[in-house]
Write a structure and sequence with these properties.
CATH architecture of chain A: Orthogonal Bundle
Strand order of the largest sheet of chain A: 1-2
Oligomer: homodimer
CATH superfamily of chain A: Winged helix-like DNA-binding domain superfamily/Winged helix DNA-binding domain
CATH class of chain A: Mainly Alpha
Structural class of chain A: mainly alpha
Shape of chain A: elongated
Number of domains of chain A: 1
Number of strands of chain A: 2
Strand content of chain A: 5-15%
Largest sheet of chain A: 2 strands, antiparallel
Chain lengths: ~140, ~140
DNA sequence: CCTATTTCCCAGTATAATAGTATGTTGATA
DNA sequence: TATCAACATACTATTATACTGGGAAATAGG
């Protein structure tokens, strides 16, 4: 599946924060309400975003979270790699994976490398600012 | 991870069969030996390939498997979709997934559609024949 | 100082998928 | 008819996912 709820939710949270910046710190309760995601589960996601310095938290009354950078400086590829722990399409291309002893005779390795690169190129071509610009009303019929 | 061992092994099996065609039917034992994959596990993978009419099996002495089509007529994208049950990068784009009620306001849907398309374009651009042409000796040092 | 608020921290849990293994049955060939 | 190899069914260990729960620490307003 490549992308789990962690990565999907993280992007939605970041876009939500970007759209509601200017209102100071934004609480998880507000985001959870708007995005229809469990507040408790969001905690674990935002924790990662804090750890990678994409958002900043403030405790107490009037506290919440806000983006640490401008939306155009937050790359979607980076967010997804942080949340998913890498975006490699196959195990043997994961960082830290032991080098496959078959690599020198592997007929498929070049193909996987290309797929990895295609995913990287695409995801690195987007920032949170780009996601914000996505028009309402996709062509889904609901 | 997008691609599990099922998809990875399936491609290796198909390339192996393509490279050893002309020798009639090829046994799972031979493929398992060459590819260093458990023969028993390969059974479950080849079963899927038979079901989708990519390979043909013959029982008994002198039996085994062989490709049902020419290598250049077997698309890598199709193989992976068969084995993985789809290649969608996110759950909401999977076939048969219930339409997301947030689709019309979703800031990320367009992005996911594009990623899905990029993966489709790339994987559909390869056939088993292309994988065979991949030169020995990738630039890995082993 | 007190209290409400909100992040922060740690721990547990149900479900499902992955990557197999084990034990047989059926059918083709020599 | 013996052998070989595909075909079929069922089971299992491990891991990841997607959460839930209980509390501790910090901040602001009264």
């Amino acid at each position: 599946m490549l992308i789990s709820t962690k990565g999907r939710y993280a992007l939605r949270v970041l876009v939500d924060m970007a759209e509601h910046s200017g209102q100071g710190y934004i609480t998880l309760r507000d985001i959870a309400g708007r995005q229809d995601i469990s507040e408790k589960y969001l905690e674990s996601i935002v924790k990662e975003l804090v750890r990678h310095e994409l958002v900043t938290g403030l405790r107490g009354k009037g506290g919440g979270y806000r983006l640490s950078k401008a939306p155009e400086d937050i790359g979607v590829g980076d967010v997804l790699r942080f949340m998913e722990g890498g975006l490699a399409p196959v195990a043997c291309l994961e960082e830290g994976h032991k080098v496959c002893p078959r690599a020198s005779v592997c007929r498929t390795l070049t193909f996987w490398r290309g797929l990895d690169e295609a995913i990287r190129q695409y995801t690195d071509g987007y920032t949170i600012a780009d996601l914000m610009r996505t028009e309402d009303g996709n062509d889904y019929i609901i």
